[in-house]
Amino acid sequence: MKNVPNVTFKTRVRDASIQHENPFRWQDVTTADIFANKSIIIVALPGAFTPTCSSTHLPGYEAKYDELKALGVDEVYCLSVNDAFTMFQWSKNLGVENIKMLPDGNGDFTRGMGMLVKKENLGFGDRSWRYSMHVVDGEVRAQFIEPGLMDNCPDDPFEVSDVDTMLGYLKKA
Questions:
Q1: At a CB cut-off of 8 Å and minimum separation 6, what does 105 contact?
Q2: Distance CA 33, CA 145 (A)
Q3: First vs last Cα of the chain: how many Å apart?
Q4: Which of 32, 110, 136, 155 has the fewest Cβ atoms nearer than 10 Å?
Q5: pTM of the prediction?
Q6: Domains of the chain by start residue, with CATH
Q7: Strand pairing class (75-80; 100-103)
Q8: Is the pLDDT confidence value at 12 over 90?
């Protein structure tokens, strides 16, 4: 088993002490902050506001969040190579209440996982390949990586990183 890469995410958090229309501040969050002593699901996808990510992938995990929690998962994070502002607006647009959004704006985590791919054929630049994984205390216990991992893939496979595959794995684990 491998461990998740040691990176720092640049996130935005609500801060009640900020008295204006944008009451958020920057906060560094490390992989240790996220994964230490916890059972975590990561749902990694190519981009906020993109069709499959918005219509099926993220909504599926949101809809079955309680089932994941009942199987011992502490938190579920949606990771994408997007900035914190985009991830926040996307979650707001979809009505996501349970899944935590994890902006990997520079792709550091995604690169460390070996999942950073070029999507230049779509004008996206570097993005995450679509996958999901179960991580316990920083150790990757299971990964469900969509087939065809490559730069400029002409397709957007969505076969194994869905919530039902993850639930099936967790029920057997």
A1: 10, 81, 82, 83, 84
A2: 24
A3: 15
A4: 155
A5: 0.92
A6: 8-172 (3.40.30.10)
A7: parallel
A8: no
Provide DSSP, the chain: --BPP--EEEEEEE-TT--SS--EEEEEEEHHHHHTT-EEEEEE-S-TT-HHIIIIIHHHHHHTHHHHHHTT--EEEEEESS-HHHHHHHHHHHT--SSEEEE-TT-HHHHHTT-EEE-GGGT--EEEPPEEEEEETTEEEEEEEPS---TT-SS---SSSSHHHHHHHHHH-
Alpha-carbon distance 50 to 55, whole Å? 8
> Looking at this protein, which amino acid is placed at residue 69?
K
Query: Per-residue pLDDT tens for 35-45?
Result: 999 999 999 99
CA–CA distance from 110 to each of 44, 100, 114, 168 (Å)? Answer: 9, 17, 6, 25
Could you give the residue numbers annotated as active site? 53
Residue-level pLDDT at 133: 99
Give me the chain's average pLDDT, please. Answer: 93
Residue type, 125: G
